[in-house]
Amino acid sequence: MIFSWMNRVFCPLMLVLVTGLMASSPSAQVDTTNTWFSNGPTGQVVVQDVVIDPIYTDTLYAGTMPGTVYRSLNRGGSWLEIGASIGGTVSALAINPLNSAVVYAGTQHAGVYKTVDRGATWAKVNTGLVDMLINVIAIDPVDTNRVFAGSSDSVFVTVNGGTRWSSTGLDSVNVSDIALNPLAPDTAYVATNGKGIYRTFDGGSSWTQVNSGLGSLRVSELAVHPTHPEIQFAVTFDGGLYKTENHGNNWAISNNGLPTLNLSSVAIAPGNPSVVFVAASSPVEIYKSSDGGATWSDISLNISMAVGPSALVVHPDSSNVVYAAVTDVQRLKQTGLDTVGFLETDLSPRALIGADFNNDGQVDFVAANQGSNTLSVFLTLARGSLFQRTDYRAGSGPSSVRAADLDLDGDLDLVTVNRTKETISVLHNDSTGVFSLPVDYFVGEPASLLAVADLDGDQDKDIVAGDSGVGSLRVFLNDGGGSLESPTIYPVSQELSGLHVGDFTGNGLPDLAAVSRITGELTLLVNTGNSRFVAQEPVTAATNPVYMVGSDFDLDGNLDLCLITVGRRVVMLLNEGSGRFTPSTVFTLSDTATGMAVADVDQDKYADLLVPESNGTVRALVNDGNARFTSTITLGSVAGPGGVLGADLDGDSRQDVVVTQPGSNGLVVLANNTLANIKSPAVPRNLRATDRGGDLGGNIDLTWDRALVDETTGRITGYRVFRSSVESGPYVQIAELDTNAAHSQDTNIVFRTYTDSSATVGESFYYYVVSENSTRDFSAHSDTATATSKAQPFFELVFSESTPFHIRDTIDVQVRLNPVGHDVQSISLYMDYDVLAFRVLDKDPLAIGTQPFTVDSSLVLRSRVLQNRLEAGGSGQVSYGLGFLPELPDEPFALGSIQVVALKDTTTQIQVVRDPSSIRRSALTERSGGDLIQPYIPPANNLVLKNHRIRGSVTFQGRRSNYDQDARLDLTRSDSLGSGLPLPDSLAYRPPNDVDFVKRGIQMRLDTKGQFSLVQVPAGTYGLFIKTFHYLRGRVAGDSVVVNDTTGVVTPVTFQWLSSDGRINSSELRAGDANDDNRADLADFGLLSAQFGQSVFEEDSAAWAADFNGDSIVNLADFALLQSNFGEVGMGSSILSKPVVTDVIFTLNWESPGKGVVHIENVDDVAGFALDIVVPAGSDVRPEQIRVGRYVDAAGKSLLLVRELKRGSENVFRVGVVLRNPLHRFSEGGDLIYLEGDLESRSHVRLENFQVLSGDGTLSYGQISELHVPTLTEEIPEHPELSQNMPNPFNPATVIPFAVSEAALVRLEVYSILGQEIRSLVSKHMPAGFHRVIWDGRDNWGRETGSGIYLYRIQIGRFVDVKKSVLIR
Predict the structure, then answer these.
(1) Confidence of residue 975 (pLDDT cuts 50, 70, 90)
(2) What letter would DSSP give residue 1102?
(3) Ramachandran angles phi, psi of 1272, nearest 5°
(4) Mind listing the pLDDT tens digit for each residue in 353-390?
């Protein structure tokens, strides 16, 4: 919700970052390393003058030769020509300071031009001008209608904005510059080339020469101090620089540090007038003074200039941004923080706070405006470049602002303390950065200080207000819903100037610290943990402190305080750890501070201070790591600064700076470009090296003290470990460690460790460690440490079988010991197992308790059993001990074994145990001395227990023997259709009898009875399919198989085959698949025809493929098997890809009422055809009435196959014709099939499923003529109709019949079950008649569609119908 009172402004602001700059030295201010770069404009122009828009300071104007004006809205990033209509070189520009849409341009030979729309249009304003060669224009800053123009001969003035000009009487002078007193603009100064300087006190009515002290009268430019106009600078073409401090009455030379006298331009920084720039023309150089012209330094560096700059201009907010008019505009960017712009606020902003108020990951900020009693909220829309300002009402005189989630809704609310109204105002956030009207709470005193923290430990934020009158702190506890309870008052010293909340005593509770401006006393109120505070005895902190901030300045884990006093002293109060402070002066400012904030400016993790001073300088006091400020960084200059804030506004991980300008009603934002100040790394301490032990050797552990502060601050970012085999070296680096790894910032980690896992067993090594920082500076190396790695004996378990195991298998587990050079006298062995996965067998049923171990036969008579038991209570623990062992060889030997029975499907372990927290510690003793040896315990291997079996058998159509077929079985995820995900061939399921893991599915050989067994199947519900050569794929009877721990070994399964239309359900796999594509079709018929009569052939030959019944001869029995299944497909998807559609066209014509002819066209290189002839069920048509046509007889000997099927109210004759001789081919076209019989309705006879067998054995689809035209009697449907597609389900294509009763526009589309269009089949006008169209299962882009249900919809005129089809891939 946006309240009507709010004022919202979008504030564009471009952050310009300075990159590639060097960090400053610790003792110097950072303002001497500079970068000049070309800022445009580009093209065949020479820049004569450049000016900055005084209101929109990112906008620049450039006057050029041969004659035009350019404008940039982004500080020179890009330029637009706006003065093409101006004639003559533009030598001077001036912008109205009160209305920057008004710009004047002075030209050479064309007089003065003026624009009132920022350069969109220009008009000449030359009335009264007698000299058109204009060198300079100056606008009265108070009465902007008064404008002065200096020419090559005179000074002119207009008092009506250029409508008419008149001479001032100063004639016969070549004017080079005009400067006005900004505080009294009737006073003006004119610089001339040859006659020195003239001055007027009456707006130009009279003039006086003021040349006293000038060593040269060839003055090129003037500069007047913005706040002390009695101070001025004049540069001359041959006499250097001069300065006056009395309005020009006397001039003094000011060339100290300037090596040249040929100067062309001078500029004073408006925001910091102590900074002055001058430009020299011979040699071409630019100089800077930071002390009002007393000393100078060369800042030319890389500036590209052929001639001296014709103009210098300094950004009004920052002395760090300078523009020079050379051939193009060159921009100077200086080290440190670069001013990026000015943001308007409401009246007199003072306090600042930064936080993410709309949860977009970007830092926003808020200014408290004391002059208007408002808050200006700036939401960051684009990091550092675009802000949205919204003003909200606060209480009267908001002097401090804080952000906290008061109502626990996940976003930050705003709190202000209002000095004038003596209230606290709370503005609740709606989570988008929009705030409510303020809710006020009475304080009762003129409070000006504010702090927010969870003071009572109830997880919500409470508020503390400090008054600047009688001296008290008022604690407002939060009720948990964002409302404040009545305050508790704690008296402290009078006139508080600082308040900070934090844990000063180290008890984990937030305390309160307040300092008095009058007494200088610091009072600490210690949190007692019961929502109450106890005041400690006040201590004297400083004299007249005005600002206080808190941070851990020395990074010792204790919260410190820092003050600034009226006397400009910076006082540090270091916390000794219990709330006791030691004050010391650590810095003295050069001027009075206007604010104070904590920020890590140089990214060294130490808290620095941001301090704006009343002279306009904004500086960072840099923490040297010891809580002292031995160097500073000049961040920039801001005229009339107020409060300050450090926050990362542009997302570069550097804290930028925001400074308020109360007198200008705005903010200045500076982007931080300071490089990280990384200190030299400290030497690692207390290095220790030890053999790890309990392993096979080769591991030496190194440990050294962790330097927490150094790692936290970035002083140490890594360590390098070095090793040598001798103490004297040489040492070689073996490791590089990064402290940014996990737990690097965990203060509980007190050591750094590294394990040398490449140490040679039995050899001593020496080590040292060095630390490094991010700049690759290295410390001296640590002390050296040495250790020797030793191998330890170890137990190993050997299993009688390889995992995975089967449920109810008995597994023998042998325990072996590898002594690794030790003379072992006795062993204690402890082992754990999962009682739900295994049952341990008792090796001595006659003994008390379970005896799990059988002693190895080699030790039965040569050792003594000390313990052999299964622990009671089902704990899964066994114990085994042997003593008085004989002297054994130094190689692995058996100690004994246990036997376990697998119980359930799981993954588990049997492991040797060495538990330091109990007596169950596997160990050994040495024969000599009886020393205890801690053995190496190798990692336990995972044991997979799986024994769910699927057993089954298969029967084959036409076979009574030869069942031992190669088969592929597919186990799918509970999917009876066969289109689901197959179980992956992985450790989850990889049966041992899968003979080929590379091929998909489970490859195995059936036994002579057609039986198989799948073992180690995971629990679940599955679909199961089987496919063998010659036979169509079948599905398990009952659709699915259930396997789980309860069923164990399931009942043997059998298989069934269903036809695609569901009419035939067979318990046998159906024959006829000669090419193993899971179909019995024309391709198989062609192969059988070519091999018909063959016998005695090799397996995998073409004749073997056609021998469906396996009797080693291709004969009528195989023909009959194929005929019985012709046109059928196996369960699930076909193995081969779907054939394409050819150009062969099938047409049904009638020679007489009782004789139909199937005619084909477009035939080329074809070996066979197949099609379905569909007739009404009552028709007198029999298979023997279907015969081949003349076209077939002409092609050669052929085989004709006719299979009759009954389908509802229709009979289907599935017909196949192939040529016997593989060299013969069909070509062109002709009569393929003759159909005879008593047909009552010829219009209901149709053709479907057209297949074409090419000469190379490729199977394709033919096409039917879309329009069925009876040749004897024309039958027209009585009404439009959409028939069911056939076949259905289908794969890969289907025929959709429909009837059109009268000519109409026909649209036929296929849709998914979700209503998405898949394919447009028909979209045209069609005549009346019976029609059909083939859908090949592809979409509009020719891509195959997946298995599923599809809807096809027809619209014939106003007739609409929809039917469902099923595609099974």
Answers:
(1) very low
(2) H
(3) -105, -55
(4) 999 999 999 999 999 999 999 999 999 887 666 788 99
Contacts of 912 by beta carbon, 8 Å cutoff, 6+ apart: 795, 797, 829, 830, 831, 922, 937, 938, 940
59/40 Cα distance (integer angstroms): 13
| CA atoms 724, 729, 734, 738: torsion sign | positive
Mean pLDDT value across residues 867-894: 90
Strand order in the sheet with 644-647: 337-344, 666-672, 656-661, 644-647
Report which residue type is found at 240. G
> Do β-strands 1259-1264 and 1186-1188 pair in parallel, antiparallel, or remain unpaired?
unpaired
What whole-number distance in Å separates Cα of residue 271 and Cα of residue 318?
6
* CA distance readout (Å), 343 to 215, 346, 746, 809, 1222: 45, 10, 41, 81, 91
Q: SS3 for 529?
A: coil
- Asked if residues 424 and 415 have their Cβ atoms less than 8 Å apart, the reply is yes
Q: Extract the tokens encoding 219.
A: 């003055």
Q: In the structure encoding, which two tokens stand for residue 1339, read together?
A: 């979409």
Helix (H, G, I), strand (E, B) or coil at 1118: helix
Whether the Cβ atoms of residue 279 and residue 267 lie closer than 8 Å to each other? no
Which amino acid is it at 303?
I
- Beta carbons within 10 angstroms of residue 100's beta carbon: 17
Contacts of 112 (CB under 8 A, 6+ apart): 104, 105, 106, 124, 125, 126, 129, 134, 137, 149, 162, 165
CA pair distance 1262, 1336, nearest whole angstrom = 11
Beta strands in 794-836 (DSSP E): 794-799, 810-818, 824-832
d(CA 822, CA 928): 10
CB 395 within 8 Å of CB 376: no
CB 511 within 8 A of CB 500: no
Residue holding tokens 């304003």? 125
What tokens appear for 1003 in the block?
Answer: 């490859």
Q: Which residues of 750-762 are buried (b: 16+ CB within 10 A; e: fewer)?
A: eebebebeebeee
* pLDDT at 603 exceeding the cut of 50: yes
Answer whether 406's CB lies under 8 Å from 428's CB.
yes
* Residue 1005: alpha-carbon gap to chain centroid: 52
β-pair type (1002-1005, 732-738): unpaired
Do residues 711 and 605 lie in contact, with contact meaning Cβ atoms separated by under 8 Å?
no
Pairing mode, strands 1034-1036 and 1020-1028:
antiparallel
Q: Do the Cβ atoms of 1258 and 1330 come closer than 8 Å?
A: no
Task: Assign residue 976 a region (left: φ > 0; alpha: ψ between -120 and 50; beta: otherwise).
Answer: alpha
- What is d(CA 1297, CA 38) in angstroms, rounded to the nearest whole number? 77
Residue 1151 corresponds to which tokens in the numbers above?
């020679």
pTM (global) more than 0.70: no
d(CA 1103, CA 1125): 19
Q: Which amino acid is at 776?
A: R
d(CA 1116, CA 695): 75
Query: Which tokens go with 808?
Result: 């109810």
Q: Rounded to the nearest 5 degrees, what angle is found at the Cα of 734, between the Cα atoms of 733 and 739?
A: 95
The answer for residues whose C-beta is within 8 angstroms of residue 99's C-beta and 6 or more apart is 144
The three-point CA angle 1134-1137-1139 to 5° equals 110
Nearest one of 662, 664, 632 to 644, comparing CA atoms: 662
* Token pair for 200: 């007027």
What secondary structure does DSSP assign to 153-206, as a single string? SEEEEESSTTSS-EEEEEES--EEEEEE-SS-TT-EEEEEBSS-EEEESSTTSS
**Cβ partners under 8 Å of residue 886, min gap 6:** 859, 862, 863
User: Angle of helix 1116-1125 relative to helix 1082-1091, nearest 10 degrees?
Assistant: 180
Question: Is residue 341 over pLDDT 70?
Answer: no
pLDDT, tens digit, 9 for 90 and up, residues 1295-1314: 899 999 988 889 999 998 87
